[in-house]
Design goal:
Blueprint (H helix, E strand, L loop, with lengths): L1 H59 L5 H22 L9
Helix pairs in contact: 1-2
Length: 96
């Protein structure tokens, strides 16, 4: 009879270990997804800043008219705001 109890104990222990491993994998996966999203958002912000600087350079050197500069900057800002809304799945919650 001891052997049967021993087998049950081993099965329960193995099941608990497997469940813990699954939870750990899920946590790591969630952290990876979060990190990836943060990196994408940061990359978009950098690209936005680069475009804004380039527009400013073009305007100050006279390569584009002031009206075009203003229109393109407004479009760039609108696009950035739209992406920010898309990046935040919970609009009532800013940050984490």
């Amino acid at each position: 009879m001891w052997s049967g109890q021993h087998d049950d104990y081993l099965e329960q222990t193995a099941r608990m270990i497997a469940e813990q491993l699954q939870r750990d994998r899920s946590r790591r996966r969630a952290k990876s997804v979060e990190y990836s999203r943060e990196q994408m958002a940061e990359s978009r912000k950098i690209a936005h800043d680069v475009q804004a600087v380039e527009l400013e350079r073009l305007a100050t050197t006279g390569r584009i008219p002031q009206a075009e500069y203003k229109a393109r900057m407004a479009a760039l800002e609108e696009d950035a705001e739209e992406r920010a809304r898309d990046d935040n799945p919970n609009p009532g919650c800013v940050g984490h």
